[in-house]
C-alpha cells in the first residue's frame, strides 16, 4: 500500500481538521495504555514506565535489561 497516508493525516479520517500530538517513546515494548488523564504506561529507556504527554519519562516502574525478554500486557478488571 505504498503511497497511502496514515489515517491521522488523511483529510477524511477521524482527526480531520483537529490537532494531533505524536508522542515519542522507546520502541522496545508496546504502549500499554493510559496511566491517568495525563500519562501513558509506555516503554522507557530502562524498561517500562509512566510517560507524560510530551514524551518525558515521569517514573520507571520496571527496569528491563536489553537482553531480557518480557511480554507485558494490560488487563482491565471491573468490580463484581
Number of helices: 0
Specify the biggest β-sheet: 4 strands, antiparallel
The rough form would be described as: globular
Residues in β-strands, percent: 25-35%
Strand order of the largest sheet: 1-2-3-4
Elements, N to C (H/E)? EEEE
Helix content: under 10%
Rg is 16 Å
On the 0-100 scale, what is the average pLDDT? 75
Beginning-to-end CA distance, first to last residue: 45 Å
The total of beta strands comes to 4
Structural class, judged by helices and strands? mainly beta
Indicate the low-confidence ranges by residue numbers: none
Describe it for me?
Strand 3 (47-52) and strand 4 (57-63) form a beta hairpin. With 80 residues, this protein is mainly β. It is globular. It has a four-stranded antiparallel β-sheet, with no helix packed on it. It is built from no helices and four strands. The mean pLDDT is 75. Helices cover 0% and strands 29% of the residues. The termini are far apart.
Name the descriptors.
80 residues, mainly beta, 4 strands, 0% helix, 29% strand
Blueprint of the fold:
Blueprint: E1 33-36, E2 39-44, E3 47-52, E4 57-63
Antiparallel strand pairs: 1-2, 2-3, 3-4
Gist?
The protein contains no helices and four strands. It has strands at residues 33-36, 39-44, 47-52, 57-63.
Amino acid at each position: 500500500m505504498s503511497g497511502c497516508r496514515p489515517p491521522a493525516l488523511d483529510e477524511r479520517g477521524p482527526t480531520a481538521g483537529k490537532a494531533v500530538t505524536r508522542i515519542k517513546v522507546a520502541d522496545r515494548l508496546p504502549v500499554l495504555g493510559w496511566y491517568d488523564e495525563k500519562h501513558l504506561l509506555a516503554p522507557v529507556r530502562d524498561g517500562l514506565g509512566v510517560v507524560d504527554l510530551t514524551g518525558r519519562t515521569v517514573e520507571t516502574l520496571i527496569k528491563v535489561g536489553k537482553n531480557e525478554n518480557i511480554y507485558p500486557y494490560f488487563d482491565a478488571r471491573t468490580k463484581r
